[in-house]
């Protein structure tokens, strides 16, 4: 997105930060718990370094094919959904709320990024994106409720979300779009 709008390096870092920590920030504020990146500021350093390295390597398509970014994003989506759900459950949130908070953790940063760039957020369009995050959140919450070990629950839930998102990318699967019939 930053490249599409020709942002300078500061703009790249800002968009990367908003995308990376936006959802978790909202989750932590809703849960009334210290915001994770304020308590552990190394997240900001990792985001900055990663964003700056991306500026360098994205210019070399043979080193970083576009598909790599899609797969990395899909993995992050799946992982953040499960981590967000786990944190919400660990702080006593009911299962339904934990699923919503896990999904918010995974997708809200991208929504904020899209709004800053004045585009309709991807999750509000046809892409199977939030649906994949929600699947990971639901799987983790249910497995946790059934008493499955945390490591196994995490692996299963991340895998479920990742497989759905990668399948949607590979086969160009999408949800049907809502359309209003034209009126005369």
Descriptive labels:
184 residues, mainly alpha, 7 helices, 68% helix, 0% strand, globular
Structure explained in plain terms:
The chain is 68% helix and 0% strand. It has helices at residues 9-30, 36-39, 42-57, 66-90, 95-116, 130-145, 150-170. Helix 4 packs antiparallel against helix 7. The radius of gyration is 17 Å and the shape is globular.
Instruction: Write down the overall geometry.
Output: globular
Radius of gyration: 17 Å
Major sheet size, sense and barrel closure: none
Count the helices. How many?
7
Quaternary organisation of the protein chains: single chain
Distance between the termini: 38 Å
Q: Bin the helical content.
A: 55-70%
Sheet/helix structural class: mainly alpha
Order of helices and strands: HHHHHHH
Low-confidence stretches: none
What do the pLDDT scores average to?
Answer: 93
Number of strands: 0
Portion of residues in beta strands equals: under 5%
What is the element layout, followed by pairings?
Blueprint: H1 9-30, H2 36-39, H3 42-57, H4 66-90, H5 95-116, H6 130-145, H7 150-170
Helix pairs in contact: 1-3, 1-5, 4-5, 4-6, 4-7, 5-6, 6-7
Structure in a nutshell:
The protein has 184 residues and is an all-alpha fold.
């Amino acid at each position: 997105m930053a490249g599409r709008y020709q942002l300078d390096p500061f703009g790249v870092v800002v968009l990367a930060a908003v995308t990376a920590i936006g959802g978790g920030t909202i989750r932590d504020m809703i849960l009334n718990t210290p915001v994770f990146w304020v308590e552990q500021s190394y997240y900001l350093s990792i985001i900055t370094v990663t964003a700056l390295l991306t500026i360098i390597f994205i210019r070399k398509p043979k080193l970083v094919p576009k598909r790599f970014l899609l797969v990395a994003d899909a993995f992050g989506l799946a992982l953040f959904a499960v981590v967000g759900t786990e944190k919400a459950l660990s702080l006593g949130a009911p299962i339904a709320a934990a699923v919503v908070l896990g999904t918010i953790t995974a997708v809200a940063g991208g929504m904020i990024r899209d709004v800053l760039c004045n585009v309709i957020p991807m999750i509000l369009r046809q892409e199977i994106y939030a649906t994949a995050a929600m699947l990971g959140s639901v799987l983790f919450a249910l497995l946790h409720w059934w008493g499955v070990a945390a490591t196994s629950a995490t692996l299963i839930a991340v895998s479920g979300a990742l497989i759905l998102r990668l399948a949607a990318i590979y086969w160009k699967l999408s949800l049907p779009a809502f359309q209003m019939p034209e009126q005369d």
